[in-house]
Amino acid sequence: MSERNAARRVRVWEVGGGRQSPHIRLGALDRRARVAEPIGVAHKVKTDWAGRRVLVAGGLGFLGGALVTRLVGMGAQVRVLDSLLPHFGGSPTNIRSVAERVEVLVEDTRNRDAVNRAVRDVDTVFHLAGAAGPDTGAGDFYFEIDVACLGTWHLLAAVRCFAPSARFVLGSSHLVYSPDCAAPVGEESHTGPDTIFGAHQLAAEAYSGVYGRAHELDVVIARLTTVFGPRQRLHNAAFGSLARVFDSALHGEDLRIPGDGRQHADFLYVDDAVDALLALGQAPGARGLAVNVGSGQSTTALAAGEAVIAAVGRGRIRPLVDGREESEPTGRAFVPDLARLRSLGVSAPIRSFEDAVRETAAWYLGRPT
Ligand SMILES: NC(=O)c1ccc[n+]([C@@H]2O[C@H](COP(=O)([O-])OP(=O)(O)OC[C@H]3O[C@@H](n4cnc5c(N)ncnc54)[C@H](O)[C@@H]3O)[C@@H](O)[C@H]2O)c1
What we know:
Blueprint: H1 3-9, E1 10-12, H2 27-33, E2 53-57, H3 62-73, E3 77-81, E4 102-105, H4 112-119, E5 124-127, H5 141-162, E6 167-173, H6 196-214, E7 218-224, E8 226-228, H7 242-250, E9 254-257, E10 264-269, H8 270-280, E11 290-293, E12 298-300, H9 301-312, E13 316-319, H10 323-327, H11 339-343, H12 353-365
Parallel strand pairs: 1-9, 2-3, 2-5, 3-4, 5-6, 6-7, 7-11, 8-10, 9-13
Antiparallel strand pairs: 10-12
The structure holds nicotinamide-adenine-dinucleotide (NAD).
């Protein structure tokens, strides 16, 4: 194979710098992926959502859809506000099993009137409307600023006016922390993002904190690590996401791992992320806090890649040690301190990282686990 062709076959994992994902046809893969549903497990977090009125902004996305599905299963009255713009991972299929019991507003958080209508009379707001992570394909900073900042502001202002006692849970990211923080990184650690995405998340956090304190709102900030699982989109997946690893493996392509591959990351299975969000949606002690949300199962980039390749049955690791890749922010190590999360009643995940990877691979491959 020529150098050029070999380079084309290499998919990049955790390498930023504005590079776009190569276009890949996923038709066949997607069709098969619709066959299998994720296997349910007993969830450890006990929260009572029966009869609660909940707004999930971004509720047709990967994370939002999983949350909506679980909330409906627990008897909540769920309203979704989602723009379904193509830059994001939103799809009605993400709530397919409960769609008839959900009120869906295909609207944008940048539309203040729509947000006011959506927030009216709810008990809880989960704000998951935004980019999943760095470089997900929008490529327009003004648009991203509007979604991250204006969208969050509209939601906060609407909560103040139309649902002042509602809990407001902001889906934020570990990328708000400075890359220089020593592991494990606690919530009081230095913030100082080195990605635009992280800067947007930190701005949304700041608005939520300042506005929440000024108007005595019940705000909680969930700083999620890297979430993965069934239904996460492969095309234009965020840099640093496990979806990029799955994408490479599923297409039998080389998987480039930045640095020496020994940097530790925390990958959080979507069911466990939902558990944590549900807990943060109700735990009285969470009010006013930023809370790290992770699995606590620290995994090296190399081990994560190997687990995906083993589960998918194809793909090949090609570690890269060169200056550029090593310096990319999403290739850096991150291990969260989860003491605060645990103190709020969210225990460690039931399944291992490898089992969660197998379950995810099975979904992508469309075969039952
Ligand atoms: N997936 C992760 O690993 C991860 C990690 C940390 C934080 N988060 C945060 O969680 C949220 C959801 O992530 P995801 O992985 O589900 O992404 P996703 O792209 O799958 O879902 C985002 C959803 O938000 C909707 N949306 C985007 N902008 C909107 C707007 N202006 N108005 C209304 N709806 C809008 C999209 O249509 C989509 O359905 C994001 O805010 C992200 O920053 C995700």
